[in-house]
Amino acid sequence: MERKLTYYFLKDPAIRVRLLAWRKLIDEKPGERARLRRAESPDDVLLLDAFFNFLQEMPEEWSESAHLPASALIATVLAHANLHEMNQYDSTSFAAQLATAKEGGDKPRMSEIRFQQLQKSHDPTEFCRRLVRAVKMLDRNANLFSLANDILHWMHEYRKGVDRNPQKRLAFCWAADYYRALPKKQSK
Predict the structure, then answer these.
(1) InterPro entries in the record, alphabetically (predicted)?
(2) How far apart are CA 86 and CA 145, in angstroms?
(3) Could you read off the pLDDT of 141-175 as tens digits, one per residue?
(4) What's the pTM?
(5) Burial, 1: exposed, middle or buried (Cβ in 10 Å; 0-12, 13-18, 19+)?
């Protein structure tokens, strides 16, 4: 049973609309998308004109110094994802997508070991590298809103610590979604 997606960190639908509009815009400017994709870390993105164009499309608070690392991480990772009709993916969380098998297969796109490594990322650069790899494992068809929300959640926990309630922690939410969506092993 899949849970209904709730975006705790990407609450405002207007921000989701702006994020989608930006993502459409960089498809029309392949040079910007390429520069974002070539960045090796979120810190590298902070120096790109493509990132400043991203900030112009996002709410003003995304340009504040406390939010810049999360903004850079979102711009970097979403540049690697394909643009698609959101209703095609908006009911499946990013973590659940990682557990789904490719058509005709029975193994998850991301193995449990890689999934656990992704969850245990130590810093934004490592998290970014692993997220980009995960997006590629999904053939770049990630739920953009779930992914952006999860990046904001991860950055919040990285800066301020995890919530006292385990059910509100990103690791728990991801594990619940991943293991619920994991293909069931056939008993022989």
Answers:
(1) CRISPR-assoc_prot_Cse2 (IPR013382), Cse2_sf (IPR038287)
(2) 8
(3) 999 999 999 999 999 999 999 888 888 899 999 99
(4) 0.90
(5) exposed
- Return the ∠ at Cα 13 (arms to 10 and 16), rounded to 5°: 65
How many C-beta atoms surround the C-beta of residue 97 within 10 A?
Answer: 24
Spatial contact of 165 and 185, defined as CB atoms under 8 Å apart: no
On the 0-12 / 13-18 / 19+ scale of CB atoms within 10 A, 57 is middle
Return the DSSP state at 186: P
DSSP letter (8 states) at residue 138: T
**3-class DSSP state for residue 121?**
coil
CATH, domain range 13-181: 1.10.520.40
DSSP states along 37-104: HH-SSHHHHTT-HHHHHHHHHS-GGGGSTTTHHHHHHHHHHHHHSPP--GGGTTTS-HHHHHHSBPTT
Q: What are phi and psi of 171, to 5 degrees?
A: -60, -40
Query: Where are the chain's structural domains?
Result: 13-181
| Residue whose tokens read 């991801």 | 174
Task: Evaluate whether 3 touches 45 at the Cβ level (below 8 Å).
Answer: no
